[in-house]
Design brief:
alpha/beta; eight-stranded mixed sheet; four-stranded antiparallel sheet; 13 helices; 35% helix; globular; binds iron/sulfur cluster; binds magnesium ion
Length: 329
């Protein structure tokens, strides 16, 4: 059977005044019902852009899909009739963002904003929509939901606003929820609460989730699999436990070593030195080579293929197996 959602060999370019940036360079990932895939990477690695392409909101700056397919239940979103595409993007796949304030309209009450979606897209009556809005706000654990329908976005705290946005995203029972850095703007305690909520929701609603983040620390409890992105490619893809236990790509290894852990508290954190590449003039061969402690001549000369490591695990490194085995240098 086809996957619920599959991105297959996607390529995206941004055309700017200064030239062409190849921001997505052959990205493939997939998602099945109820699964959570974390997409991890630094800013500019292409994790949001891929999601924006799925949602059809890839317009700022002018991005262009130059290859690949985006399949929902086996049907290519890029080829289907506009009405069908709108159905998938408006209903089956929903997205939430880092900044709830900009996703919500400041001049309307949250009750109005939730019910408006239900009335316009699901054809509900006013009273049904109101009842459903309260249900949704209960679902995302907004206290005293019924009394808050008439409140405006600015009357909610940052964490509660994030919950309102999640409620809106859930209004039409999406099969896939894409969460783009949903907790980055929140303080640590609230972050944990919102991540807990997302974890519970995807379990209770059997919803698939793509969790986009730059923070390896937040995904361990929620995600089933992780796709690590660097310079518009997935450099490692593995189930969470295998990846944490034994990274198979030097970039992932570097990310893991830069997370503070209880057992290494007090020792100096390693951080990955250097900056992400300029995608208008990417480094030759493996784009990570200028920052990689294991780089050899082959890394400068040849783009590493996706090495298959078993159990669906891949690493785009010439020395993937050695990194995995811990036998590299
Ligand atoms: Fe490092 Fe070479 Fe592997 Fe790239 S291919 S990650 S430079 S060892
Ligand atoms: Mg982003």
């Amino acid at each position: 059977a086809p996957h619920l959602l599959e991105v297959r060999d996607l390529f995206i370019e941004f055309h700017t005044r200064d030239g062409v940036a190849k921001v997505i360079n052959g990205v493939s990932y997939h998602l099945d019902p109820g699964e959570t895939l974390a997409v991890l990477g630094e800013s500019g690695s292409g994790k949001s852009v891929t999601a924006q392409a799925i949602m059809g909101i890839l317009d700022m700056p002018p991005g262009r899909i130059t290859g690949g397919r985006i399949l929902f239940k086996g049907n290519d979103l890029l080829e289907m009739e506009e009405a069908d595409r709108r159905q998938v993007r408006g209903q089956s796949v929903a997205m939430i963002f880092q900044d709830a304030l900009s996703a919500l309209n400041p001049v309307f009450t949250v009750g109005y904003q939730i019910t408006e979606t239900l009335r316009r897209r699901a054809g509900m009556s006013r009273s049904d929509a109101n009842a459903r809005a309260v249900e949704l706000m209960d679902l995302v654990r907004i206290p005293a939901a019924r009394t808050r329908l008439g409140d405006f976005p600015h009357q909610f705290s940052g964490g509660m606003r994030q919950r309102v946005m999640i409620a809106m995203a859930l209004a039409l029972n999406p099969k896939v929820l894409i969460a783009d850095e949903p907790t980055t703007a929140l303080d640590v305690t609230v972050q944990a609460q919102v991540m807990d909520l997302l974890g519970d929701l995807r379990r209770d609603l059997n919803m698939a989730m793509i969790l986009i983040t730059h923070d390896l620390g937040v995904v361990a409890d929620v995600a089933d699999r992780i796709a690590v992105m660097y310079a518009g490619r997935i450099v490692e893809h593995a189930d969470v436990h295998s990846l944490y236990a034994n990274p198979a790509h030097p970039y992932t290894k570097g990310l893991l070593e830069s997370i503070p852990r209880l057992d290494t508290r007090g020792t100096e954190l390693t951080t990955i030195k250097g900056l992400p590449p300029n995608l208008m003039h990417p480094p030759s061969g493996c784009t990570f080579h200028p920052r990689c402690p294991y780089a050899e001549e082959i890394c400068v000369e040849q783009v590493p293929p996706q090495m298959e490591l078993g159990n669906g695990r891949t690493s785009a490194c010439h020395f993937a197996q050695e990194v995995l085995d811990g036998t590299i240098r």
